[in-house]
Amino acid sequence: MQGSTVDTSESQVLVTAESQAHGHDDHEEHPDFRIFGMILFLIAEGMIFLGLFAAYLTFRSVNAIPADQIPERELLLPGINTILLVASSFLIHPAEDAIKENDVKAVRKWFGLAAVLGVIFIFGQGYEYSQLTFGLRDSLFASTFYILTGFHGLHVMLGLGAIFAVLWRSREPGHYSAESHFGIAAAELYWHFVDVVWIVLFLLLYLL
């Protein structure tokens, strides 16, 4: 009877240890839950932008843009900004493929190039503001224009912050690897979101 009790206890210990081991492995094998959380966050952010887009389209449907407040319809600067942001999305994408090969050096290269284009975009947006002939309070259109582009610009700066954080942390040996690179994947996903939002803004504000 005593031997049976000992065997049962040992079996329970083994089962518990095995369950804990499998639980740990399962946790390691499902980091995508963090990406899922990031996707939910971006959906929430997207809803905010959709609200702003709807407000702008509603305004445009019942009000004409004041003649002296049209952004000149000059597409050169915003067009260049669009090209830069789209290009930065293409440049940042190979970084995730590179980290899957444990090539941290390539990650730094692609993220660095994307960051440079993002910074140029911000300076380009600032320069455009300096050339506009209307201010934030001049009209409903002016307020909407600055809120839409400014809110997006804020997201670009947050995205740049994420990119620079990845670049900084990549300096630590082993911080990113094929098995652990959530920061890289999240920063890339956020940057693609910023890119898509700008394309919609460009269509609404400069082409329609």
Keyword list:
elongated; mainly alpha; 0% strand
Walk me through this protein's architecture.
With 208 residues, the protein is an all-alpha fold. It has 2 domains: 1-30; 33-207, Four Helix Bundle (Hemerythrin (Met), subunit A) (Up-down Bundle), CATH 1.20.120.80. Helices cover 80% and strands 0% of the residues. The chain contains 6 helices and no strands. The N and C termini lie far apart (85 Å).
Task: Give me a quick take on this structure.
The protein has six helices and no strands.
Topology:
Elements (H helix, E strand, L loop, with lengths): L1 H28 L2 H31 L13 H24 L4 H28 L8 H30 L12 H26 L1
- Counting structural domains, the number is 2
Level-2 CATH architecture of the largest domain: Up-down Bundle
DSSP, total strands? 0
CATH class of the largest domain: Mainly Alpha
**What is the average of the pLDDT values?**
81
Q: The biggest beta sheet, please? A: none
Q: Which band does the percent of strand residues land in?
A: under 5%
Radius of gyration: 25 Å
Q: Which percent range fits the helix content?
A: over 70%
Name the shape in a single word. elongated
Unreliable stretches (pLDDT < 50, length at least 5) are 2-27
Number of helices: 6
CATH T-level fold name of the largest domain:
Four Helix Bundle (Hemerythrin (Met), subunit A)
- Counting helices, strands and paired strands, the structural category is mainly alpha
CATH superfamily of the largest domain: Cytochrome c oxidase, subunit III, four-helix bundle
Distance between the termini: 85 Å
Order of helices and strands: HHHHHH
